[in-house]
Amino acid sequence: LIDDHNGMKALCDRDPQISFTANREFAPDEYIVTFTYTSFIEAPLGAEAPRLGDGHEARIILRANYPRQAPVVLWQTPIFHPNIRATDGAVCLGVLNQRFLPGMGVARLVRMLAEMVQWRNYDAANAFNREAAVWAANTDNWPAIEAMGGYPLIAHQGVAELMQLIEKASGPRITFRSLTPAA
User: Fold this and answer.
1) 134, 50 Cβ separation under 8 angstroms
2) Which of 88-101 are b and which e, b meaning 16 or more Cβ less than 10 Å from the residue's Cβ?
3) Is 137 helix (H, G, I), strand (E, B) or coil?
4) Residue 87: which region, alpha, beta or left (left: phi > 0; alpha: psi -120 to 50)?
5) How confident is the model at residue 104 (pLDDT cuts 50, 70, 90)?
6) What share of the chain is helix, strand, coil (3-state, %, to 5)?
7) Which helix (H) or strand (E) holds 34?
8) How far apart are CA 82 and CA 154, in angstroms?
9) Alpha-carbon torsion (95, 104, 109, 141), positive or negative
10) Which letter, b or e, does each residue of 165-182 get, where b requires 16 or more Cβ atoms within 10 Å of its Cβ?
11) Per-residue pLDDT at 171
């Protein structure tokens, strides 16, 4: 816990767009991390891009079985992202949830969260927020992602296959329009 706290201080010294508070000065087991990167903060209305904001907070809880098990990460501020559930702020850590490496540390996890905020790290196929996943998979929206410094969806399969995966995972509740340009 002490090493993690020192790692967090070093990360914040290197990146002024990340700051944190901890529940105690010595060996903290809970952090509130603030990111001042620009990101989408709410779902788009109609044909517009999602609204942008630059104040984001995540809560990181190191449970008793840390570092053998991944920390709990809960987003505290509104954000529109495929891997952050809008209703409760749960963050999908993907493979990290099952295979968290004890040597990874909190600072490295926070760096990963910073990449998520910037839309440089997201997985639309295994989404916590289906609406954001569908939006991210639509090629018409890629310029908005790029304009804020993010990366458009780059999947190992084609976009059509990705949309089928999202539709299969979400069931019949969502209907997707085709991303294939009309001839």
Assistant:
1) no
2) ebbbbbeebeeebe
3) helix
4) alpha
5) confident
6) 35, 15, 50
7) strand 30-35
8) 14
9) negative
10) bbbeeeeeeeeeeeeeee
11) 55
Taking CA atoms, 167 is separated from 4, 16, 63, 95, in Å, by 39, 39, 34, 21
The confidence score (pLDDT) of residue 55 equals 94
Residue 181 confidence class, pLDDT cut points 50, 70, 90: very low
CA–CA gap between residue 5 and residue 25 (Å, rounded): 8
- 60 forms beta bridges with 31, 73
CA pair distance 150, 128, nearest whole angstrom: 19
Amino acid (1-letter code) at residue 118: Q
Distance CA 48, CA 65 (A): 44
Residue 95 or residue 90, greater confidence: 90
Over residues 112-134, mean pLDDT: 92
CA angle 4/8/9 to nearest 5° reads: 120
Angle in degrees, CA 150, 98, 8, rounded to 5:
55
pLDDT above 70 covers a percentage of the chain that reads 80
Mean pLDDT score of the chain, rounded to an integer?
A: 85
